[in-house]
Amino acid sequence: MGNNYHKAINYGLKKGADQVELFVLEGYSDVVQLEKNAIKASESKSVTGLGVRAYTKKGLGIATTSLIDEDSTKDIVNKAVKLSKLSPPDKLFKTLPGPFEKYPAIDGLSNEGVSNLSADKLTEMAIHAIDSALEKHDVVVSGNLTRSHATETIYNSLGVEVTQNLSSLSGVIFVKAEKKDDIATSWDYQKTRSVKEFDPERMGSTASENAISLLGSKKIKSQELPIILDYRGSLDTLSSIISAGLDAFEVILGTAYFKDRLGEQITNEEITLIDNPLYLGGVGSSNFDDEGVPHKELTLIEAGVAKAYFSNSYCANVLGIKNTGHASKGSLSSKPHPDLTQIQISPGSWAVDEIIAETKKGLYLKDSSLEPSSGSPNISVLIDQGFLIENGEISHPLKETMVGTNIFDLLKNINAISKEVVNESGSISPAIRIANAKIAGGE
Amino acid sequence: MLDKIKHILEKHSFKTGDFADIRLQKGSGTLITIQNGRPEQINYEKEIGVGIRALIDGGWGFVSIVSFDLTEIEEALQKAIKVAQATAKKTTEKGMMIEDFAVVGKHKVNYKKNPRDISIEQKYEVVQEYEKVTREYSDKIVSTNASIKEWFQKEIIVNTLGTKVETEYGNLNLACMATSREGDTMQNVYSAMGTTNGWEEVEKLNVTEDGLQLAKRAIELLKAKKPPSGKMDIVMDQSLVGVYVHESFGHAEEADAILAKDSILEGKMGKKIGCELINIYDDPTLPGLRGSYFYDSEGTKAIKRDLVKDGVQTGYLHSLETAAKMDAKPNGAARAMNFNYRPIVRMGNTYIDAGDSSFEELLELIKNGVYLEKSYGGYVDTAKGEFYFSAQGGHIIRNGELAEAIQNVSMSGLCLEVLQRTVAVGKDLRFDFPGSCGKQSQWVPVHAGGPPIAVKEIVVGGQ
Lengths: 443, 463
Hints:
Number of helices of chain B: 10
Strand content of chain A: 35-45%
Oligomer: heterodimer
Largest sheet of chain B: 7 strands, mixed
Number of domains of chain A: 2
Radius of gyration of chain B: 23 Å
Number of helices of chain A: 10
Structural class of chain B: alpha+beta
Shape of chain B: globular
Structural class of chain A: alpha+beta
Number of strands of chain B: 22
Number of strands of chain A: 20
Shape of chain A: globular
Order of helices and strands of chain A: HEEEHHHEEEHEHHEEEHEEEHEEEEEHEE
Number of domains of chain B: 2
Distance between the termini of chain B: 58 Å
Helix content of chain B: 10-25%
Strand content of chain B: 35-45%
Helix content of chain A: 10-25%
Largest interface: A-B, 83 and 83 residues
């Protein structure tokens, strides 16, 4: 195919473009859908397409097609070039990236066990997840298990020519538990690069136990309380804050929370946070970003101090900073913007049990995060899975309870970080405690 | 092409109760975005593909391919049948299909002004004006993003019940977002128009005026008070009522959720679930709205669905399968995001019908509380019946009048409690929420609305 891609790029240049990039996706996914404790459907999908970016006199045209035969490719390259000529120039644009001499070669991005997994085996795994959810409790199970395989190829007119194969197994199990009129719901999920690590039984039993533990939820009064976030809660919360706070594109737009604050202490000095796309076996790992730029590790927060913005080629050129290789397309038709790959947060000095025991009254959030809402630093969220802590012990689950704070206060108020961390296929996080936040209760 | 596809299905024999359908989709669209005065992207997207379902011995199989080649379609059908047979052996909850229900029809979109006849340059000018007036209103507007998106698709749907439908669908969306910032205080607002009508809707919108109003709102919110926190009485504007009825109620009315024991409305048919002031409909036949369509993705003709009458639940949203399982008539609510997904039960245009209270009467009734306006989206846990959604801003209600402005805030409640706690319904019905609804990873265009309503005891997140 390489020759065809060269031809397509040359065709774009011949049509008048200054620079051309092709992003080709060829793959498939198999999905087993679960509903009401049974297999609802099995699906086999084709995931294929071509995205073309063409620049002419700094004008950008993007064109995408699901068909990638020769005629379609030619047609879509032509379309991208035409649009680039219609577009007024983006004066900030300098150049596409590349070429690059060396790329990392991470083992295990594509696992034969996953790629060759039979549809029957995937169905069996789904049945195991259901069975383990039902083993101890009379609950209702739904969800899905997915096996994906994709080959990503990026070529550009500056000489970037890279291909990588990525495969994964993922699943999410939802469980509803009922006791008379009381209803509780919960979930568990997993995504791995290997069959060995994938544990559908764990997803089923965890989701089931979680749902049962949330029965008997009570409303509480509005008040100010400390909040403990478990591993997933702290990972999702901190990722969402850093994702909008240190994104180089948001810096250019003027909306990054930590614009012009590199070098400033923004949170507890025990927190060091890196983005690590090179981690062996990580589901966020890959050799290069969505512009074909080699991946590397990046320290974003060191001892509580903001250290770097994460960028793509456009932002790096505009801001005059290093390209950190964080371009992400989101979908085939999107323009690549900076995005995080795989967050790893360093451990603190507290035992999780100690953090809970030391909290007289507070909230414990399980896989429930405090993410900023509505494009502002304000946080105003409903607690999905939360418990009240009284006298250092988990007292009861919560309902109709919201948390109101903002990202600056939240970061400043982190006053305990657990020494235990959980590694979920490359994303690593401790539990954290926020000293104080406003709680809106339904009582 | 339709007859050729039909012929592929006819080559296979299906037992009574077995079923298959083939859905060909061909779509294309453009997106123009301008951000902070810079052209962000001009984007063209073309999508073709085929989605094939088979129900064999109660097992569902689905296969999608990116090709219109007849041999490949036939092979994909055979694969879907095999996948369905394998599923049937493993599943304990059998799928089911309605009998004697065939639709033959053709629908062509008839625009007054076809958006595809409008040049890229003309479209760019509209977006440019929208973004420029918003950005230039104040130095404190740090970020702006205006866009126009147009999509048009044709579908052919053929099934073993005898359905043969050719249908078209298109939508056009114009939106602008503004972020104001003063130090660490940031407020984000947006305005959006979404329609299945043509370019005439864009011409009706005064983007200069709308952009100015948007920018003004973003700046005013910087100085607005932090929202209060706790349980309080509220008035919601039309946009929030739209999200409220869609999230807290509409999703629970989807019959697949009822059958999956994933809805708080299971067993509530014919029962009183809200105050008698509440009447709720979902109507994809309303012309021009984002959730308007003629045939659903199973080829069923869309009809208006009565969901709640005087506070009593009267109907569900159905696909062919849920109608069969619940012994009901299909009402055209099975929609798929594209050929790569199975159709599932979805809303179209969901709304609370107009009541008879003026806005002033609603404020007077609440006396002291908050007025929340301009939705920012939300979600619901249909099984638990707990919903959450966000407002771009609002006002304190004091002594029955609007007082000082408050910043963006979220709220939550239990769906049925909120329907019961609605104390007054306004008379000014508007469809102010053009949105995209997500379910099982599928996003489909919807519209929602209603009149302003007054509700007691909602939890407001505050700051």
